[in-house]
Automatic annotation (TrEMBL):
Keywords: Transferase. GO terms for molecular function: transferase activity. Coiled coil: none annotated. This is Glutathione S-transferase. It comes from Sedimentitalea nanhaiensis.
Amino acid sequence: MYKVYGGIASRAFRVLWLLEELGQTYELIPSKPHDSAVIALNPSGKIPVLQDGTAALTDSTAILTYLADKHGGFTYSAGTIERARQDSLTHAVLDELDAVLWTAARHSFVLPEERRVPDVKDSLKWEFARNLDRLADRIEGPFLMGETMTIADIIATHCVNWAIGAKFPVENAAISDYAATMRDRPAFKRVREFQAA
C-alpha cells in the first residue's frame, strides 16, 4: 500500500486525487513541511512524499508521472507525440500557473518577513490571469487534451482551486467551467471529504 505524506491543503491533494482515480489503496499520513517524518524521507522537508515500499518519491509532478506510468492511466505512452503534448501542457501549467502562485505564497507567508515583497502580488495576479487565458485557448474539451484526462488536468485544476483560495481572480469563463467539471469528479470529491473529516 502506498503512503502519502502531506496535507489536503498542499500539492499532496494532486497525488491523492490521482490515487483515487486509479483506484489504488493508500494511507494518508497527515504531515506538514519539515515534520520529522517528512525530513526522514526527504531531506528538503518538502511535501508531498510518496512511499512505495522502501522507495520515497518527492515532487508532486514526478509522483503523478510515476503513478500514471506504473498503473497505465491518465497519461499517454512515453515516446508518443501525445505524450510530448501532455508533457508540454504539464510544464506550461507548472511554469505559468503553479510557479506564479508559489511566488505569491512565498511573499505572503513562506519567506522570512524581512524578505517578502507584498507589492509583487498585484503583478502576479495580472500574470496569472493572462496565463489562464492562454491555457483556456488550449482546452480541447472536456479535458485539456480532448477526451482523455491526464495528469496535466489534475495539476491545472489544483492550481485554479489554489488561486481561488489565495484570492486570485479566476475570471475566464472557459477555465471556470472546466474547473467546475473537474471538481465534480467522484475521485476529486472523495479527497475533498478529508477536509470535512
